[in-house]
Each structure stands twice: as C-alpha cells, then as structure tokens.
Write a structure and sequence with these properties.
single chain; 288 residues; alpha+beta; Jelly Rolls; seven-stranded mixed sheet; four-stranded antiparallel sheet; 2 helices
Length: 288
C-alpha cells in the first residue's frame, strides 16, 4: 500500500516538474520575442532617423543648387562638406511655337496673371523690333478661365505704337446669362478655349503695332487663367530652374530617393504688378 502511495507521489512530482519547465520555456520564449521586438523597433527607428536626416540634407542641397546657379550660372553644385550635391537644369516657360499659355495655377483675387506678348533679349530688355522672331503677331487672342468662374475680371493690354505707349482696359463680367463687357451685354463664351473653360475674345487689330503685355486681374474670386492665340504663338515667359539634391543613399520602397526643388521665374519678377499699375500715370501712356 505504501509503495503504491510512494509511487503515486513520485509521479506527481515528475508531472509538477514538467509543468514548471514548460512554464519556464514559455516565459523564456515570450521574453525572447519581446527582446527581439524591441531590438527590431530600435533598428527601424534608427534607420528612419538616418533616412530623414539624409532627406533633409538632399533638400538643403537642392535649394543650395538653385542659389548656386543664380549666383554663378553653373549647374553642378557640391556642398562644402562633400556629403551632398545637386544637379540643376533650366527649362523655358512658353516659347517654342506654343499657341496656348497656361501656367497651371490659380490667380488669387486682386493679383495679376501676366502674359508677355513681346520676347526678351538675353540682357532682359524687350525685343521691340522682333529680331528674334518670337513676338506675338496676331490681331486678337482669347482669355480663357475655368468654366466654374462666375465673377469679374479686369484685362489690361499694354502696347507700343511707334515711339508711344498705350493701354486698353476691359471689364468682363461672367455669369449664367451670357456676360457683360464694359457694362454692355455681350456673349463672352468662347469655344476656342475648349471643354472645361470659358473665354473672352479680345480684338487687338486697332491697338498699336507692337503688343507688349496682357495682365488679367480677377476682382472677386480666384481663377485659373490661360491665353489662346489661335494660329499665333507666344514668346517665352521665363524659365523654370529645377534642382535635384542628393545625399548619401536614401531608400524608400527599395529605390533611391532624391529631393527636387523647382522655382519659376517669370520675366518681370515680383515688381511687375506694381509697374503695371504705375504705368497708367506716365505721360507718354494713354488709357482709353
């Protein structure tokens, strides 16, 4: 009887030891998993921090590349520490025989969208004599706006007639029942602009011999604006400076990543709006 009892106690002891060992193994496995998870998270965070730092360096290099080009005219930039670099490229805005000018952006209320009708020499002066053969030579053009626009624009056309300068201004009111031009009812929906656009046709045939500049100002709502010259092309409007900065080897989804910065420079710069408003007070400029 006692032998049987002792035998049963030993069996219970072995069973208890096995359970303890199993619990220990489970705890070790859980601890190991937690440790590996924490280790993996630390490695991931370290990699993210490194990538973010490299992206910042690449972005700074791209910006520095643009400044470097504006200061020196050179297109290859390398940071003083040798850890980052940038390649700069230059593209024209407009020109090249384009008959439509679209900057693909909205013009904010009371700001001006300015479109040059005369080309620029390399030193920035205006090519009055059209020696480059790029000036707009049409007798009319169409101002196009996105068709959701239901408000008013002011159009100012600047031109040269011999040695004199002039400006012509129109007010266009767009609405659901046709529209008004300078207070007179008129149909201003132009099919030239295409689907998604509404337009106003401008007759320039009696206004000077050298078109200079067309400025469009939305008075109450922002709007996207473009010009359509029909069969006649527009001169270049400026340049786009694009800079691609690189720093180390930044990876995202298995591919190398660069940072790109682009800056548009329209001829005339930031003072153009001020000049357009100020021109009407000049003695040699008449406004009709």
């Amino acid at each position: 009887m006692f032998k049987n009892l002792k035998f049963k106690i030993k069996n219970l002891g072995c069973q208890s030891s096995g359970q303890v060992a199993l619990v220990v193994l489970v705890l070790v496995a859980v601890s190991l998993a937690l440790g590996l998870s924490v280790s993996s998270e630390v490695v991931t965070e370290t990699k993210i921090d490194k990538d973010e730092e490299l992206l910042k360096q690449a972005f700074n290099a791209a910006e520095s590349g643009i400044e470097f080009y504006l200061g020196t005219g050179e297109t290859n930039y390398e940071a003083p520490d040798g850890q980052s670099k940038a390649d700069v490229s230059i593209d024209d805005i407009g020109g090249g025989g384009e008959t439509v000018l679209d900057f693909d952006e909205y013009t904010v209320v009371n700001d001006m969208a300015n479109f040059w009708l005369v080309s620029h020499e390399s030193d920035g002066s205006l090519d009055y004599d059209n020696s480059m053969g790029e000036n707009f030579t049409g007798n009319g053009l169409t101002v196009c706006l996105n068709d959701s626009f239901n408000s008013t624009i002011e159009v100012s056309y600047f031109y040269r007639d011999g040695i004199d300068y002039g400006v012509e201004r129109w007010i266009y009111e767009f609405g659901t029942n046709g529209g008004m031009v300078n207070g007179a009812l008129s149909s201003i929906d132009s099919g030239v602009c295409g689907s998604g656009w509404v337009g106003a046709d401008l007759d320039l045939s009696s206004l000077g011999d050298t078109p200079l500049l067309l400025s469009v100002r939305p008075l109450f709502n922002s709007v996207r604006i473009s010009l359509n010259g029909g069969a006649f092309s527009f001169p270049g409007q400026g340049i786009v400076i694009s800079s691609v900065g690189r720093a180390g080897k930044v990876e995202a989804m298995g591919e190398a990543v660069d940072r790109r910065v682009s800056v548009s420079r329209i001829w005339g710069g930031s003072i153009l709006d001020f000049m357009v408003d100020g021109l009407v007070v000049e003695r040699d400029l008449s406004s009709e």
